[in-house]
Fold this sequence. Notes:
The complex is a heterodimer. Chain A has 14 helices and four strands. Chain A has helices at residues 13-16, 23-43, 46-72, 80-97, 103-122, 130-150, 182-205, 207-217, 219-224, 229-256, 266-279, 284-307, 314-335, 339-353, and strands at residues 163-164, 169-170, 173-174, 258-259. In chain A, helix 4 packs across helix 10. Chain B is mostly helical. Chain B has one domain (2-297): ABC transporter involved in vitamin B12 uptake, BtuC. Chain B has helices at residues 2-17, 19-50, 57-73, 78-101, 109-131, 156-178, 180-190, 192-197, 202-228, 237-248, 253-274, 283-297, and strands at 146-149, 152-155.
Amino acid sequence: MLYRESGQFKTSYEADQAILPIPQDRWFLMAVLLIAYLVIPAVSSEYMLQAVLIPFLVFAMAAIGLNLLLGYAGQLSLGTGGFMAVGAYMTYKMTTAWPDMDIIVVFLLSGLCAAGVGIIFGIPSLRIKGFYLAVATLAAQFFLSWMFNKVEWFYNYNPSGTITAPPRTVFGHVVTGPEATAETRYMVALILVTVFALIAKNLVRGRVGRSWMAIRDMDIAAEIIGFKPYQTKLLAFAISSFYCGIAGAMTLFLWLGSVETEAFAINISFQVLFMVIIGGLGSILGSFLGAAFITLVPVLLTNAPQLAGLQMATDLQKHLEVMIFGGLIIFFLIVEPHGFARLWQITKEKLRRWPFPY
Amino acid sequence: METLHAVFVAPWLDMWEAPVFFAEVFVSGLLTGVMYSLVALGFVLIFKASGTFNFAQGVMVLFAALTLVGLMEKGVPVWLALILTAVVMVVLAIVIERVMLRPLVNQEHIILFMATIGLAFFLEGFGELIWGSNVKRLDVGIPEEPVMIKGVLLNSFDIWAAAIGAILVAGLAVFFHKTPIGRALRAVADDHQAALSVGIPLKTIWIIVWSVAGIVALVAGIMWGGKSGVQFSLSLIAFKALPVLILGGFTSVPGAIVGGLIIGVGEKVAEVYWGPLIGGAIENWFAYVLALVFLLFRPQGLFGERIIERV
């Protein structure tokens, strides 16, 4: 009844090619954005922002990056954590070397550095595919985290080996460092994610996205009809790593404030992979849903015993958490292997005919 | 010039000048390699039979070792504990087939891969929930004193591990090539549909394969657990087994063995002779880079089936 597009006629190609051709969808997205930009910063507590919403945005960014690579270009990568580390460490290096440079510019530049690293580790993708490639990208993960640990230049020779975000301002607001409020950091992260999600959405709708999908579906056939596999795959690696690099920079500057290489360990790579798979391969919306799920579930599991009034030993609770997390992942894969994005699609199909399905 | 000399000449001179030390490094690398092979073997078995890349193999090693230690701490004699743990691994295989593999039949490989990662989380939590997460000592009566063979100092535990690994591999080879079940397993590995159409029960085969992988995990768990104690980090040896796999090929049992030996030796030699030049602790990634370089020349690994693509 509410969600029905009958009677909506498109009179121009622009209208037909809009990202969201149906007004109901546009209103819905507007409402979500309004809530995200206006309501949430006003009502959320410090804890809510710091422990839930900022990590959600950071991981959404990384998940979009991996989804471009895995969901659209079909290249399985387990090096996400490594590429995020590149983003974080390069941002730190650049902003301490040139303190006057705008932090957003630094973010973008370090994203470019991550893209370069991504291209280097993407080179094997021309020769190898599938799980062989996945294992090969693990080389990126382990090598990069070893490098950032061993080469002291990357953390400015400080003895603890951690890097800490120095205070930086954008338009007079302190956005990083210990003085920055959670609201400001949330807003910066939100703006970055919105802009880059929009760019990603348009990338995958256009020529680049189509070439990726052609390579994903069958690379030999794609090559025969004129897509260059090498360039296409490397471009996918570059852009994906760019997103991951920005996500890494956000981790350091907008979320944690100070990190070691441990923060970008192999677990992060797997978590982002979970987000992409559970959210839905080849869907930008799915990346958000997956990121929300994977960041929210541990928070809920951690707080559930207190809410239910149960007292548990912390290590017992930790084990239970890990166990339930693993179980949930298997459960969701069995129930809907195509992820939340597909569930959303099904819901929309159902909604269309609601309340008279026949 | 100085650095070039240090990188390209000095290590070889060192090896030449102290052959006994080199032999020690080499052999200890070989013996570690056997342990990697043991873990890689579990991956290969499952990948061959079901095309699933079982990420949970490392955690299965941990789980088996935890169960064994837990039972032994309860006062169960070693032989009984071994049998009971093997039974637990078989039950685990049946449950996995029922609950996880059956609903996911015909899904894409990546989905199954994710499911095994979920399984890895689950088993890790489950094992530590039941048996606790402290570091435990595992002692099944394998001697540990050092022995000298032709002037080379070795740990007898490593030699035992290598011997047991060799027996296990030989046993598996016989099992695969001489028994009806083994033949059925190879048929499934070749072609699922053809195997189904000649009446090979796929579900039973999967249970068997996962059970065998579970028992291989138990053996690996005993070896690694005896060497470094049973603790969470045991599951991380899965990451050591992965380069072994790509080096040897995902589908080849001999590949897993040879790959394990190459990685074991390469890693040790590189760490001892080249490691100090670039700050040490290169063991974590050296195997990967070695495997990666190798892959550029032979994408299917040493013994893997040739990848033939049809359009």
